[in-house]
Backbone:
């Protein structure tokens, strides 16, 4: 039997506003518990929410970038449930009239493009945090996060496997960071997602029963959780059993999903329009200003890099993969006036190091200033490319200044031709057999002499000078 | 010199002429509070701070509009560092860290808050019998209810303890007790007065307003209470007039609507007689009465009792024993903490409404109840819009009758019908006022005028003209015999 997987993602993006969605309290991360709260966030009697328009502007940027309908009149609803970290006993969200309607995003899987439709994106407030392991027999509640604006982005069930799901999540991550509406910091929970997975027979039109895996916050775990879930559901179906509609939790240590609650036990959220807030109206003028302020998006950047710098598609794609990478490329190119060399290093050695450490460029210790120095020392012949490679590794580990490292380690390229000539003469004298072979027509052996000279100079010789000198001496 | 039954205007004059010092006025006010302790009009007193503020005014006089005027605050407005219970056990230990905008507006205009008045629990009730702090007695009769939910405020004003008190009105909670206690109370247009710091019952219906002995005092208070508040999105960004300016304007030629669908023949004959006499009186002032139709008005009470409980079921979720207010003893686990804190903290009427509200919002019933009620609400508003094309104001009795005996109305549905005449103004967001208009068996009875949106000036003008030419509002209860 051939099975087909259907996946839909709900991505929660924490918008990088200075203050909360409905109060003037700060959204900063990592403060002492319950210090970034005001009367509204505490859910005090009589306190009323006031909308932070900045969150709307950010949500609209996302809508515009995904070619979505923007609802210039949108409304808030209450989602009612009891939980200690939900101070009002309800969450203010957008159910009936979200700010962003149907849109789409293109994902890239193994070089193939696929369009995923986005059903909607709505604004809502985050809850606080329950802390279960700090106080013996008691639960602590930290409301610093309560009221932080979230944009919940809901995809159509058009994702077919774990790889596509990761690509989709990455595409959203890339977009929201480019748009400067989210810091993209996964470790701090700035982006999390719920994954809906169902399985059906290939020939069936109707979708199978879905399970929802809650609150995953890394690319790796999304892939693993989905693959586990697909296998679990297929196993059930092949045994003739059925999938239960339920909410599940992914345990990254055991690499499995576990049931949290079934549909029967699910809350009835008793949604209704939030009477404390009027519909939020976005004027044409406001919308026009947001459109004008939209930054260049990844695809546009990629195309421009190809046109302006004569790059390969694959190179341009890597350089436009993140805002930080694109910025490093453009700024370093401007300073060094050698965009091709800059591109070569970013796409080559630096990308390799990023992959090895599994970090993003802004998390690395490589600063723009140091990277520019590295490129300049290559182009002004202070160091050879080979030395530069090992130097980069050093800089990568320590973040130390390139010029200081060159001085300290004595990596300056030997430019003095008389010194090089002396070394070359010694190499020729001590390798008579190779000289004879070379002279009898084995041109390829020339490289051997270059290598020997480089070895003697610990790689500090200028390769071009070495070539010239050897050619002269060997006749 | 006695201060009992004095109006704001009279007290201001006494203070100005130094017939009485600020301190003496507040001292005397607290003497009255004590004297009429049996009314049970207050839940918490603010004696120390009030006397302090009065002394400060004696040392350094101010030219604030309401300088030194004692006022009682409904215990639904949060008051910084002064216990605020909303008439409920669940908040019986709650000391708010901030004050409502209404409180700040009044206090910064010179008013002295003398205490927090008793009320139906979370403003849910029409007799003040649902308060955790006991029922309030109507100064007009030992075992009579004062109405509700602003029963403590109404009783304190009716007994002449304070010239004025704040109230809130979700379905009639200012106008109905004003009617039953023989005082004047106005519920302004929804959004005129900020809801910031008002403990919410039904957010889309709640509106604060003044309760006083005269229309003029209500207008004076409105000038201070109304404000556009950036902390309340639903507060109106509309110009606020001087509500006292046009009080004396002639009302000749005004058209007042009588609602065709309100069948008064079902009411007590004496109640109808009072209403007819009020009509005649207005006619003598040159007012023309026109019959208007509000075709959907009979759906008001059922609509109200879907919308208000729905909102209250959500608004009261925050009282969970986690952050503030009462928490049950030794909870076993989270579920137990929720269930027992709320079961012990809320009274029966509040529980009833939370249940109704949760029911009408639940999956599968939402469309049939809540959504339908919102649609009817829109129709009722449209009915008023049409009527106001023909008339300036609409007049009805405020209540079906005068104050009833405590404990006499045990059927909740019967109690809900107390709101029959008052609820439509809340559903449509319109201003309404109740003024004393006569007596049945020595019990006061109010007359209600409803105005179009933002037309409070006209409403106050027409009501004031009634008081200028009648003396129903000047009568005082004879409490000495009974206390």
Residues:
């Amino acid at each position: 039997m051939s099975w087909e997987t259907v996946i839909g993602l709900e991505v929660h993006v924490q918008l990088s506003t200075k203050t909360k969605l409905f109060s003037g309290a700060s959204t900063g991360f990592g403060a002492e518990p319950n210090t970034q709260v005001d009367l509204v966030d505490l859910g005090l009697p009589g306190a009323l929410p006031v909308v932070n328009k900045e969150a709307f502007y950010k949500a609209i940027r996302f809508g515009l970038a995904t070619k979505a309908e923007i609802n210039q009149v949108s409304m808030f609803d209450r989602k009612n449930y009891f939980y200690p970290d939900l101070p009002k006993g309800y969450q203010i969200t957008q159910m009936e009239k979200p700010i962003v309607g149907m849109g789409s995003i293109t994902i890239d899987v193994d070089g193939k493009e696929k369009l995923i439709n986005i059903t909607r994106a709505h604004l809502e407030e985050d809850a606080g945090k329950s802390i279960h392991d700090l106080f013996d027999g008691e639960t602590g509640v930290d409301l610093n996060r309560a009221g932080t604006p979230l944009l919940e982005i809901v995809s159509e069930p058009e994702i077919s496997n774990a790889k596509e799901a990761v690509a989709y999540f990455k595409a959203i991550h890339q977009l929201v960071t480019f748009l400067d509406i989210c810091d993209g910091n996964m470790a701090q929970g700035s982006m999390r997602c719920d994954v809906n997975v169902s399985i059906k027979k290939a020939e069936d039109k109707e979708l199978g029963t879905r399970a929802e895996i809650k609150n995953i916050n890394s690319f790796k775990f999304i892939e693993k959780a989905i693959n586990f879930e697909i296998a679990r559901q297929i196993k059930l179906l092949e045994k003739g059993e059925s999938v239960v509609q339920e909410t599940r939790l992914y345990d990254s240590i055991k690499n499995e999903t576990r049931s949290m609650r079934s549909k029967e036990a699910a809350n009835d959220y008793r949604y209704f329009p939030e009477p404390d807030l009027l519909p939020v109206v976005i004027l044409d003028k406001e919308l026009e200003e947001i459109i004008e302020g939209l930054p260049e998006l990844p695809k546009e950047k990629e195309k421009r890099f190809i046109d302006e710098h004569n790059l390969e598609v694959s190179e341009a794609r890597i350089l436009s993969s993140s805002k930080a990478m694109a910025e490093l490329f453009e700024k370093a190119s401007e300073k060094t006036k050698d965009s091709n060399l800059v591109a070569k290093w970013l796409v080559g050695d630096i990308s390799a190091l990023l992959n090895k450490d599994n970090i993003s460029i802004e998390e690395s210790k490589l600063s723009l200033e140091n990277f520019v120095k590295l490129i300049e020392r290559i182009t002004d012949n202070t160091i050879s490319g080979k030395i530069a490679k090992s130097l980069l590794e050093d800089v990568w580990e320590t973040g130390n200044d390139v010029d200081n490292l060159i001085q300290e380690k004595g990596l300056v390229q030997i430019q003095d031709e008389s010194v090089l000539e002396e070394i070359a003469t010694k190499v020729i004298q001590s390798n008579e057999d190779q000289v004879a072979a070379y002279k009898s027509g084995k041109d390829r052996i020339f490289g051997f002499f270059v290598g020997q000279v480089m070895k003697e100079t610990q790689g500090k010789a200028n390769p071009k000078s070495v070539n010239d000198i050897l050619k002269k001496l060997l006749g | 010199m006695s201060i009992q039954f004095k109006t704001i205007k009279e007290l201001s004059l006494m203070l100005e002429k130094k017939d009485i010092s600020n301190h003496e006025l507040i001292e005397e006010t607290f003497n009255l509070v004590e004297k009429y302790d049996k009314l049970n009009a207050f839940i918490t007193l603010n004696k120390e701070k009030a006397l302090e503020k009065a002394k400060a005014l004696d040392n350094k006089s101010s030219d604030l509009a309401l300088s030194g005027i004692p006022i009682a605050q409904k215990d639904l407005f949060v008051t910084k560092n002064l216990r605020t219970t909303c008439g409920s056990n669940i908040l019986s230990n709650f000391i708010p860290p901030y004050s409502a905008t209404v409180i700040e507006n009044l206090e910064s205009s010179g008013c002295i808050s003398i205490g927090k008045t008793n009320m139906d629990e979370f403003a849910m009730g029409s007799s003040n019998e649902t308060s955790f702090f006991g029922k309030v007695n109507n100064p007009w009769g030992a075992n009579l209810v004062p109405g509700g939910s602003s029963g403590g405020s109404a009783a304190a004003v009716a007994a002449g303890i304070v010239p004025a008190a704040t109230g809130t009105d979700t379905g009639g909670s200012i106008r109905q007790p004003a009617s039953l206690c023989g005082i004047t109370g106005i519920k302004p247009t929804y959004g005129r007065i900020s809801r910031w710091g008002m403990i919410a019952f039904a957010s889309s219906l709640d509106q604060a307003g003044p309760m006083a002995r005269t229309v003029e005092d209500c207008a004076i208070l409105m000038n201070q209470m109304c404000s556009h508040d950036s902390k309340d999105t639903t507060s109106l960004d509309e110009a606020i007039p001087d509500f006292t300016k046009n009080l004396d304007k002639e009302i000749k030629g005004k058209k007042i609507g009588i609602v065709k669908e309100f069948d008064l023949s079902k009411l007590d004959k004496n109640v109808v007689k009072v209403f007819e006499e009020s009509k005649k009186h207005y006619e003598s002032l040159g007012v023309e009465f026109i019959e208007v139709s509000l075709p959907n008005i009979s759906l008001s009470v059922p609509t109200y009792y879907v919308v208000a409980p729905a909102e209250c079921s959500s608004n009261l979720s925050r009282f969970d024993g986690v952050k503030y207010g009462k928490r049950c003893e030794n909870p076993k686990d989270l579920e137990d903490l929720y269930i027992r804190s709320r079961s012990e903290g809320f009274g029966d009427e509040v529980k009833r409404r939370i249940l109704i509200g949760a029911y009408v919002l639940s999956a599968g019933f939402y469309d049939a109840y809540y959504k339908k009620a919102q649609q009817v609400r829109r129709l009722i508003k449209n009915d008023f819009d049409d009527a106001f094309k023909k008339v300036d104001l609409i007049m009805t009795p405020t209540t079906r009758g005068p104050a009833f005996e405590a404990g006499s109305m045990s059927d909740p549905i019967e109690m809900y019908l107390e709101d029959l005449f008052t609820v439509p103004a809340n559903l449509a967001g319109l201003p309404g006022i109740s003024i004393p208009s006569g007596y049945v068996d020595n019990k006061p009875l109010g007359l209600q005028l409803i105005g179009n949106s933002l037309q409070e000036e006209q409403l106050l003008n027409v009501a004031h003209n009634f008081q200028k030419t009648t003396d129903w509002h000047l009568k005082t209860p004879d409490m000495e015999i009974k206390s």
